[in-house]
Each structure stands twice: as C-alpha cells, then as structure tokens.
Design goal:
Structural class: mainly alpha
Order of helices and strands: HHHHHHHHHHHHHHHH
Mean pLDDT: 82
Radius of gyration: 22 Å
Strand content: under 5%
Oligomer: single chain
Low-confidence stretches: 1-6
C-alpha cells in the first residue's frame, strides 16, 4: 500500500484543507436545515412561505417568536455545549467513555439544585445555577479522587465507576426529594425537555456559548494537559490550573443545561467518540465538528420526539438517552480494526500495561 505524506505547504495539503472546509460547510448546512425543520414542527401550524414573506398573523408571529425560535436556539446551544464539555472531560480524564452523565457530574448538579431549592426556594435562577455548578464540580472531583485510589485494568472500569457514583448520588437525591414530596420536580430536572422553553426562560443558555469560546481559546492547553501531568509540566504549563479550568467549565455548562432544560444523557459521550474516529483527537480541529454534530444530533432527536406520537411529545431526554445508550453499547463492544491489529501484535504483559495506561 502506498502512503503519501504531504507537507503543510504542499498542494496535497491545500487540497485536504479545502476538502475539510467543504465538509464543514456541508455540516453547517445540514444543521441549519434541521433547525429550519424544527421551527415548523408542532401542534400550531406555521407556513414557511408566510414566514419568508412576512405575512404572518399576530398569533402565528407570537408562536414563532415566543415558542419556536427560543426552543430551536436552546436546542442548538444545549446540544453543542454538552458535546463540547464531554470532549473536554474525555481529554482531561484521558478516557473516551467519560462524560458528565457517566462521571456523576449531572447527578451532583441535580443534587445541588434540589438542596438550593429546599434551602432557598426564592433564589434567582443564576444563584441556583451557581450552587448546582459547585455541587457538579465537587462530584467530578470526587470521581477523580476515586479513580486515583483504585487499580484500573480496563477502559470500561472508568465509566462504570462514574455510573456507580452517580447512582449513589441519585439515590440520595431521590430519597430527599421523596421525603420533601419533590420527586416530580426532580424528575423534570433529570429528564431533558424542551417543551417548556419559551421566551424569557432560556436566555441563560447563551452563557454556554461563552464557555464554548473559552474552550476553543484554551484548546491547545487542554490537549497538552490530556497527555499527563509530567508531560504538561515539562512543557512549562501549569497542569493543575488547566485541569481546574477545564473541569470548572464542564461543571458550569452541565449545571446550566440541567437548570434550563434538564439532563441530556450520553450526548457528551457519543458525539466526541464519533468525531474522534473521523477527525482525530486534536481538540482545536475536532471542536467545530463536535459542536455541529452535537447540535444536529439533538435537533434530530427533538424532531423525532415531536412527530413519533403527534400531537403528543416524547421528552428529548428519553429520545437522546435511548439512541445514545445504543450507540454507547456499540462503542463499548466494537473496537476499530487498526486498534485491534495493534493490540493483537502486543505481547501479553505489554498489552495489560497499555490497557491500564489507557484506562488512566
């Protein structure tokens, strides 16, 4: 097999960049198409032609401005941001099966939201988001602490530890909610649902766009941090600062999305893994793809949830969880051919050591 290596300034490299830009533009067009479809799916009829010509009635204009546009914008922001922080978390923890829903982060944020609702029910939404973010960060740090104290023989052990930790936190949260007769409220936080998103109730989600920009600015630092503490320190970077900033962004975005629309399970796991198989592990290069695929994935699931039992609606958390769990199991059981070949050529002791390093 002939292998051609192109230098950065060669015609082959320019052609590859041009092809990559073309695919990225096509992906943007697909997401815009899904967003357009999302605007016109629902119980109230909206005619695309009347929207384009500006001949809507007052009722149709109110439906578009108050309900449909906020819902579509919040879907794009939530989908892109959860996919991005999932990628950041996988990079920092050095495990591709970790995301906020498999590390106890989402459950910790819901626990914090329950506590602040009981202690101070009149607190503004921003204050509740801050408390939920603090709990989410504490839960994530506890997850990392547990990982450092147990032997990891397989990459699968890491998400299993996270899911067990999340189950314990969710059990405590459910018990408190049951005693306070708040199980229905808790269920609404843990199940993502965009049906209640309207004007003046979603604007807080614009903060996740700022978090996405910060991730892109610090992409190179996160990429280096993902190579380990010793490697990062040798390059003159502060490992703990980069780690704390990254996990802080993960906690804030997770808490923000849960406060506004609820949990979106497996989204931050599935999307980065799919992008990684086609684009690679460079954070700056894969970030636009992760954001687009995350937004497109949630848009498609939301449209499916709205039409499968029309005029009723299946919550987006159920649809994303159903599709995402299926893809998650596929990723757990299926390994790309090149990795299987590399693993098969390794001696047994080296393979065990490599598995343990991969798990860490």
């Amino acid at each position: 097999m002939r292998v051609t290596v192109s230098s950065p300034g060669s015609p082959g490299s320019a052609t590859a960049r041009s092809a990559g830009t073309g695919r990225l533009i096509a992906a943007v067009a697909v997401v815009l198409l899904l967003a357009g479809v999302s605007l016109f799916v629902g119980v109230s009829d909206l005619d695309p032609l009347r929207v384009l010509t500006g001949t809507l009635t007052d009722v149709e204009r109110q439906t578009l401005v108050v309900s449909r546009l906020p819902r579509t914008i919040s879907i794009v922001l939530a989908g892109a941001s959860i996919a991005i922080v999932g990628l950041v978390m996988q990079m920092l923890v050095r495990n591709k099966f970790v995301e906020p829903a498999t590390a106890g982060t989402s459950e910790s944020a819901a626990f914090g939201l329950l506590v602040v609702t009981i202690v101070s029910p009149g607190m503004p939404l921003v204050g509740k988001m801050v408390v939920a973010a603090v709990f989410a960060l504490a839960g994530t740090m506890l997850f990392l602490r547990i990982l450092r104290s147990i032997p990891l023989r397989s990459v699968i052990v890491v998400p299993l530890v996270g899911m067990m930790l999340g189950a314990v936190i969710a059990a405590v949260t459910t018990f408190i909610a049951y005693r306070r007769q708040m199980t229905q409220t808790l269920s609404s936080w843990l199940t993502g649902d965009f049906s209640g998103v309207i004007q003046n109730r979603y604007e807080l989600l614009w903060l996740v766009a700022i978090a996405g920009i910060l991730v892109y600015v610090m992409a190179d630092r996160f990429t280096v941090t993902g190579m380990g503490e010793e490697f990062t320190t040798n390059l003159g970077l502060n490992y703990r600062t980069a780690m704390n900033v990254g996990l802080g962004l993960v906690a804030v975005v997770t808490a923000l999305v849960i406060v506004v629309v609820g949990s979106l399970p497996f989204l931050g796991l599935v999307v980065p893994n799919i992008v990684s198989r086609f684009v690679g592990d460079n954070l700056r290069r894969s970030l636009p793809w992760v954001a687009l695929l995350g937004a497109g994935f949630v848009l498609a699931c939301d449209i499916l949830g709205r039409i499968v039992r029309f005029p009723y609606e299946v919550p987006i958390g159920v649809v994303v969880g159903l599709v995402g769990s299926g893809v998650f199991l596929y990723l757990l059981l299926y390994e790309p051919r090149d990795r299987r070949e590399v693993r098969a050529r390794r001696p047994a002791r080296a393979r065990d050591r490599a598995t343990e390093v991969d798990a860490r």
